UniProtKB/TrEMBL annotation:
Belongs to the LysR transcriptional regulatory family. This is LysR family transcriptional regulator. GO terms for biological process: DNA-templated transcription. It comes from Salinicola corii. Residues 1-59 form the HTH lysR-type domain. The keyword DNA-binding applies. SUPFAM superfamilies: Periplasmic binding protein-like II (SSF53850), Winged helix' DNA-binding domain (SSF46785). The keyword Hydrolase does not apply. GO terms for molecular function: DNA-binding transcription factor activity; sequence-specific DNA binding. Keywords: DNA-binding, Transcription, Transcription regulation.
Amino acid sequence: MDKFAAMRAFIGVVDAGNFSRAAEQLDLPRPTVTRLVQELEKELQIQLLHRTTRRMTVTEEGRRYYLGAQQLVADADALESDVAGARSRPRGTIHVDVPGTLASSIIIPALPDFFAQYPDIAIDLKIDNRSSDLIERGIDCVIRIGSIIDDRLIARPLAELAFLTLASPAYLATRGRPEHPEELAGQHTRIQVVSPRTGQAFRTTLTRGGESVSPCTDHHLAVDDARAALAACREGLGITTTYALLAAPYLASGELEMILDDWDCGRTPVQVAYPSTRIPAQRVRVFVDWVQDLFKSRR
């Protein structure tokens, strides 16, 4: 029995949902796909699939084997691609997770350059900054704001994003301009930003010289997206602290004003990461290298 052929047949059946569709997608006769899966079950001495005349389901053992076999086959394909890639251009689809903040302001505007360099690569871009199992979802790499604490991922630093504290001219005309962070408590309304990954509220610590203040302010609105917080701030709903790169156009247009600008609002890291359990395909490696160069050019 060709173990890899049997693995591919089993993976194809699980992905397709039945033997007939899997045979069509694998371009194999249906009896061949059936035989390969049966031989695999005999070799392993476990039942991978429950079959009836009407439906097919994956057993618990089959689900575990599917995930492991999927990774093995992907690694083998990546290795072959890597060896062949030394003589050919990288090609295929990359599955990437990116926070909306970075997708709209940095990644997407720069993609024409990437596609000009690598015309045979397609990108499946998912806008997400939530904690999830990247390996199980088949994601090739992620770009994350904040620290990545996952020993299954290899992370590379890209940049640090600076924060600014902002308010709209209309809000400041009504509520006044704070001169010290302690004035925010009780006198002002904050637009609270919560982490989409943890659901916890972000706390801002402002520093100046040896002084450090973490103001506790009331809020009428909490959001889990920095762009939504900016939109609310522009409407005069309160003060917010957000990324300087997002605020720049609105500061330039006068829609927002920086407050407490002699105080440091801190920074947060940006990283790109990919699963440590996989050999990254050539197309993934060139994308990671391109992202690193992109952020380096903006420093």
